[in-house]
Description:
The complex is a heterodimer of chains A (316) and B (563).
Chain A: H1 2-29, H2 34-38, H3 47-57, H4 63-75, H5 89-124, H6 129-143, H7 146-161, H8 176-210, H9 213-220, H10 225-262, H11 268-277, H12 281-309
Chain B: H1 17-23, H2 28-36, H3 39-45, E1 64-69, H4 84-87, H5 90-93, E2 98-99, E3 115-116, E4 119-124, E5 130-135, H6 154-166, H7 171-174, E6 177-184, E7 187-192, H8 199-203, H9 213-219, E8 232-238, E9 242-247, E10 261-266, H10 270-278, E11 284-287, H11 290-299, E12 304-307, E13 315-319, H12 329-337, H13 341-347, E14 353-354, H14 382-391, E15 399-405, H15 409-426, E16 429-435, H16 437-446, E17 452-456, H17 464-472, H18 486-496, H19 501-518, E18 522-523, E19 526-527, E20 530-533, E21 537-538, E22 560-561
Parallel strand pairs in B: 1-10, 15-16, 15-17
Antiparallel strand pairs in B: 2-3, 4-5, 5-7, 6-7, 8-9, 9-10, 11-20, 12-20, 13-17, 13-18, 14-19, 21-22
Amino acid sequence: xxxxxxxxxxxxxxxxxxxxxxxxxxxxxxxxxxxxxxxxxxxxxxxxxxxxxxxxxxxxxxxxxxxxxxxxxxxxxxxxxxxxxxxxxxxxxxxxxxxxxxxxxxxxxxxxxxxxxxxxxxxxxxxxxxxxxxxxxxxxxxxxxxxxxxxxxxxxxxxxxxxxxxxxxxxxxxxxxxxxxxxxxxxxxxxxxxxxxxxxxxxxxxxxxxxxxxxxxxxxxxxxxxxxxxxxxxxxxxxxxxxxxxxxxxxxxxxxxxxxxxxxxxxxxxxxxxxxxxxxxxxxxxxxxxxxxxxxxxxxxxxxxxxxxxxxxxxx
Amino acid sequence: xxxxxxxxxxxxxxxxxxxxxxxxxxxxxxxxxxxxxxxxxxxxxxxxxxxxxxxxxxxxxxxxxxxxxxxxxxxxxxxxxxxxxxxxxxxxxxxxxxxxxxxxxxxxxxxxxxxxxxxxxxxxxxxxxxxxxxxxxxxxxxxxxxxxxxxxxxxxxxxxxxxxxxxxxxxxxxxxxxxxxxxxxxxxxxxxxxxxxxxxxxxxxxxxxxxxxxxxxxxxxxxxxxxxxxxxxxxxxxxxxxxxxxxxxxxxxxxxxxxxxxxxxxxxxxxxxxxxxxxxxxxxxxxxxxxxxxxxxxxxxxxxxxxxxxxxxxxxxxxxxxxxxxxxxxxxxxxxxxxxxxxxxxxxxxxxxxxxxxxxxxxxxxxxxxxxxxxxxxxxxxxxxxxxxxxxxxxxxxxxxxxxxxxxxxxxxxxxxxxxxxxxxxxxxxxxxxxxxxxxxxxxxxxxxxxxxxxxxxxxxxxxxxxxxxxxxxxxxxxxxxxxxxxxxxxxxxxxxxxxxxxxxxxxxxxxxxxxxxxxxxxxxxxxxxxxxxxxxxxxxxxxxxxxxxxxxxxxxxxxxxx
Lengths: 316, 563
């Protein structure tokens, strides 16, 4: 097991290295730089002044040198400051990461809370009204893009209930109730999308497992229906579901960009988009690496979860 | 039209198909197509006033004013940006030497009479090269370390102007200063390199705020702290979350401001801003189109609407007029005549827009220019355009490019209409490239591009000097449209040396006539828009060129909440 984890962690190194090269290269390929953005609308972009600023920020150095410097900064856990705001990147991340983390966690919880019971219900009541409803809900979740659903939710909440989540982020520790109000709707929007694929997968795997011999045996023994489904069938049906959920984490993180914008939450998504627009190289690069590292870790955790779900699986 | 009748009973919660499309942002194109059908009538019957006079009631103290804002300050250092994200509140934390009237002082939106802000009086030398400003006595910096409420003196202003001249976005304006002296604590004498009768107007621009020497010297920049002398103190600035301003009890205008706190909530999404206003989380909002106002009035019938009339268009078709084929005035004129601007106003802006001109009309005439006022080359005359282009040696048209950044969705529609008109009327094939802001901006201001761009002039400027000399003189670094016309150079310089108001109007008129005749900047239609206030808001109307939610924020020093 430990050997397996170690091997996976070693494999993560080239993945992260490749990610770093891609993000570094893409940022340099994009026209303009942070100074152009900083001087926007000024009309006073003096060549001399820009040259000096570029030198101060190390943007005049050859790309390999800039890359090596940045990799060293990342390895030494000191990603530097934002070019645009001068704010140390760890400080910016300290503010943004908890927002996205909370949003994503709530979305996953809500997504699973919606998906698994409906998926099981659909499977156990195959081709009945609840199954059709569940399938329609799942297809809707897959079809409706986050930006549309988010806009719809916030607009109609305002029109029908004269209420929308309080704008302006409040931390969970400062006011849990206000925080919950701010996060519930965006998390539901994100979670709804996540739940769709999970719901469909749950339905099909539960259906499949319900036709297995050991389930038939359980029925034959006269076990209660709920016991058969939840104790014998569901746990075994969950492995593909976990795979699906793990695979969707990247999509979920991408979705936070849009949802954070609509619900005015200051998370990683907004931080990254703003940094891209302002060509704030260090911020974009650090954020992308953080997301890459997170996804690598989460995928590893998903793989490890298989062993917990199915004792027959052993990692060597 | 019934849809714009303010007395029409509201239909709370009823949602039509059109509302649905509008509210859910299902694409500007669909909304525009729908809006276009009733545009002219809507514009003609718009029942909303252009000006909301000051309240006659005695002002009430207290309360929190909140606004959901699209903009975030990129940085809080006024030397480094002219972004509306910063100036939506810096005019409240800091003062200028002179200012334009607040909405409770102005008689009309076009009232641009200069008032003293930190300066009590100002006077030029006979040749307008030396300006002497007498400062108010007893003005205190906000009671925040390291200033701790010390008195503002002339040396502070001198230092600030020197810093502006040294580097940053306002360097061009302040480099006009040859030297400064402070004969006493409250007197600042400014010596200019050349005469400028409009110099005080440049100091009244919303961006010319006075910042503190101590913060600048301690921090090396102004990116972390913003301490001024204004009616509000910056209590909190959390990027992408909120800006909170707190009433400054030591503000020199005793008894003001009336509102205790002004909270600006960072809300990048338009639908969310609208929802915030509808649910009372925001006290005022900017809306672009009549149909949007009508949509809001269905759920919030008591709102107060000010119809905002732009006095200029900030965007237009910029041609590489220093090179072929656009260096030929006949080509520029032909292109201008081939574009149907009225169609854009009617369809893209639902009839609530202007045809487009670059210098605010209030500086040279009393009413907005009509199509006729803009001259022969600005009329839609496709047949004449084709003939003129043939005379210029392009009977079969030519290929060109156009790059732009979509500042707002309607801009894409305008760009496409231009492309369509030029193809249809002149056989000019325009290849459009839509860029992100940084790429667009970098390429545009570099000024080395070929073909066409959807150009802009800065949004903040109120003064005539900024709108003429600064943007059109061939030597100006703000001359983005690459105007290089000796007549314009001469006239804009002359304007700076003309102290008489009537003569200024005459010279300004000559400048715009020359601009129209030579089609030096090809302005395009622009929306007018609306400011919509909750019923309890008082004295927050927007003046011409200075919207209360943007560069005109200082007027909120006189706003109050009638709750």
